[in-house]
Structures are given as C-alpha cells and as structure tokens.
Amino acid sequence: MPNATPGSLVAFADAAPAPLAPWAPGRLVALFRGDLTAALAAVTLVVIALAALLAPWIAPFDPAQTFDIAARTQPPSATHWLGTDQLSRDLLSRLLYGARLSLGISVLAVTVAMVIGTAWGAVAGYAGGWVDRVLMQVVDAGLAIPRILLLLGVVALWGTLSMPALVLVLGLTGWFTASRLVRAEVRATRERDFAVAARATGATPLRVLVRQVLPHALTTILVAATLGVGQVVIVEAGLSFLGYGVAPPAASWGSLIREGRALLGTAWWMSVFPGVGLAATVLAINVLGDRLRRVLGGQQLHAP
User: Hey, which bits of the chain come out as E strands?
Assistant: First the structure.
C-alpha cells in the first residue's frame, strides 16, 4: 500500500470486507433453493428438535410411569402409540425424552469442543512460529488416538458418568479437528490487506484476531459444528448402548436400543423406533451439514 497515510490505514482497516453471515437471509434462501433433499432434512430436524424441546408437554405419559403386568411389552396400540417396554413404560414418552437427552448432550458437547477448538486454532494460526508448532503437536497427539478408544478408556476408569461429566468428556475429546480447521482459516486471513492495515494502525493482536480475522472463519466453524452434532449423537448413543453413557432410569436413544436388544424377536418396537429416530436425526444433520458446506463456500470438512 504505497504512500499510505495513518488516516488512510485506519479507514482501510475499519472497512475490512465483512463476510456474509451464514444466517443472512440471502444465504438461508440459497440453502434450500433447488434442493428438495436439504429441505426435507431441515423439516425432519426441526420436527425432531421441537418434539425433544416440547417433550414435557406432548409426551402422553411420564417416561418412568409403569402400568400393570399385562401392559408389559405390548405392541403399538391406540393407548400406547409405539408400544410399551418390559417394565410397561410408554415407549413414545421415553423416546421423546430420549431425544431431548441425546440432542441436548450432543449440542452442549459440540459447543464445548468448538469453543476450545476455535480458541486453540486461532492462537496457533495467528501466532505462528514455535507457538503454532507446539500447539499443533498437541493436536496431532490427540488425533493419533482413536476417539472411541479414548472415550472407552475414560469411562473404564470412572465407570458410569453423570450427564455433565459425559458432556465434558465428549467435548474435551472432540476439539482437535476443529482447531485445525480454524487454524487454516486464520493463517489464510491474517496476511490479508485489512488485517495488515489494522496491525499497522497499532491495533493489538487480540483485537485484530477477534475483529478482523475470526469473523471470516464463522462459516467453517458453523459447518464443523453442524456435522459435529451428528457425530456426537452417534458416539453418545454408542456409549449408552454399551452401558457407559446415560444411566437408568434416564434414557437416551442408545440406552433405549440397548434395553430392547434382548427382546428384538418378540418386542421389536423397543429397539426399532429409537433406531429409526437416531438414524433419521443423524442423516438429516449430515445432509444439512453437507449443504451448508456447499452453499457457504466452505472446504471439505470433517466433524470434530
């Protein structure tokens, strides 16, 4: 920028091109334009999310309520739309509360992972040098250990985890890939003219990072978080299926499938309906994540 004056540098830094927010109306319209699959996935996910949020009001029974012995493992009927389990509890009510638990744990865990991953990757990408090398070596070490093995090792040491502990464990083992993605975005943005101009005006590194650089990584963060929720739903269901996740009498989709596996031949509905809910949710999230990546111009991403 030859012959640049301090005043022109300030004006240029303040006029940094603002990335179009992923939730801007134009991008939201483009998200579903001409893609019926993405629209159906969005509707499916909205219905499941609303059912989970409104579970206390729309569930026909208390999920822990039991009926008489004759009501055990009853098939779907007018009274119990999805049938009952081996303790005569209403499966629809337990499925709704299970969705609330599974989605809640997954969203909170991904939030923890994205906060840590964004901060870690932003510092590494902006600082560069030995700081970048040290921080990325930690990430490489984390990625070298398969996540499921790490999770099984943790739960084997502590046994059944409480729900807050489960959220933390899932979040603390899922931020490594997110940090790499954010680091790449920060490294690509920190040398752009508006970031250089901001530094030339005396802006602190933190201000440049937060005000000028990180906003350009929002798309990457959003796509990674969306795909991450789908992955964590599966991981949490797997842990609960193995008996290491949500402890009874609370139920998630994984624990509901586990409860019905021994009766699959005689009471198929106990495992099939939670399995369908799990599969539909993960499929819808993955379709939306892939559509977000293509519409928002992100690179090929893998969930944290």
Answer: none
Residue 8: pLDDT band (50, 70, 90) is very low
pLDDT number for residue 58: 94
DSSP type of residue 90: B
Runs of H (alpha helix) within 75-128: 91-127
pLDDT in tens, 203-238: 787 888 888 888 888 888 888 999 899 999 999 998
The DSSP element (H or E) to which 71 belongs, if any, is none
Q: What is the pLDDT of residue 229?
A: 93
If 0-12 CB within 10 Å is exposed, 13-18 middle and 19+ buried, where does residue 283 land?
Answer: middle
Please state, as a whole number, how many other Cβ atoms lie within 10 Å of the Cβ of residue 229.
23
Helix, strand, or coil (residue 185): helix
* Number of helices (H), then strands (E), in the chain: 14, 0
- pTM of the predicted model as reported, rounded to 2 decimal places: 0.85
Distance between alpha carbon 67 and the CA centroid of its chain, in Å?
A: 37
DSSP 297: T
Would you state the structure tokens that stand for residue 291, as one six-digit string? 């559509």
In tens, the pLDDT along 33-58 reads 767 888 899 899 999 999 999 999 99
CA atoms within 13 A on the CB side of 227: 20
142 near 174, Cβ under 8 Å?
no
Q: What is the pLDDT of residue 170?
A: 92
C-alpha closest to that of 205 among 219, 220, 186, 224? 186
Per-residue burial over 159-188, b = 16 or more CB atoms within 10 Å of its CB, e = otherwise:
eebebeebbebbbebbbbbbbbbbbebbbe
Please state whether the peptide bond connecting residue 249 to the residue before it is cis, i.e. omega within 30 degrees of 0. yes
- Taking phi over 0 as left and psi of -120 to 50 as alpha, with beta for the rest, 248 belongs to beta
